[in-house]
Fold this protein.
Amino acid sequence: MPRFGLALNLGLEDRSVPATARLYEDVLDVVAYAEQSGIDAVWIGQHHFTNTPGPVPSPLVLLTAAVARTSRIDLGTGIVTLPLEDPIRLAEDAGTLDVLSGGRVQLGVGTGGANLGAFSAFGHDSADRHRLFDEKIARLNDILAGRPVSDSSPAIIQPHVPDLHRRVWQAVTSLDRARSAGRLGQGIQVGAFFDSVVDGQLPKVEAYLDAYSSTGPDDLPRIGVFRFVYLGVSRDAVLAELEPILGPRLPLLADRASVSGNDRLRGLGLEDYLDAVGAIYGSADDAQAALAADPVVALATDVVANSAVQSTFSATASRAQVDALVAVRSEGVLVE
């Protein structure tokens, strides 16, 4: 059975310091609740500046605060925008968190489609994000593996966690990126709102598996499948609830998908859009049937649920999402 994770979208309309403090406190409470409920991992994304959904520029720092409230749950980034990072500093911060947490870090990185507006502020052109990613993932892997931090120095980072480089995940947006992650023996993340299941996600997973090369004797492919999950009385009832919220945003979501090379979502209505990206919605029976029929979930090592709809994070809704995830797993739908 795959591991079950929870992705937290930390939207916030009020960006004042008191509101941000409440957001962080609510998130930490939800992470603790997820661990108590048996969830295997929590994933937090990175968002720079006020033109993104919420104030989480440093997910590793926020996850460090979760260490004091948890003892088992994995702490993942979903994702850090690697082209905007210094690989040495990212490796140092991830290593520090990994030591503090007892080896629970899962380091998800990507090219930064959600942070395109931040590139110029960091002195980069967003059109260069794929080249920057390729350069920095090679550098990050070397540093995490304990190789010298520069050609002119034999020094390595501290703390050096020997196996942390085997807990790196790449959010893949093309077949070439999936193959590259496979050759490196790293995990991949697919799904969410910007890629269709059959035409987009499945070919990437298959390309990754074909290219996968183990980096250690115990290494196996790692496939994280992100799915938006909305449970209610029925599919029609959930659609009626979501239509006024998500319906107006579909053109923007389709535009965002096109940034990653996926133009197939343009012009779709809400039901067709949700079905195309593999969203799980409706009654518990509907959810179980959808998960069992999902060809990408069938290949997953990790299934990560996300249910963000509102522009401001809701701890109550996130706890309900945890409860729904536990209920789905208890049904035993997803088995090897």
Q: What stands out?
A: The mean pLDDT is 91.
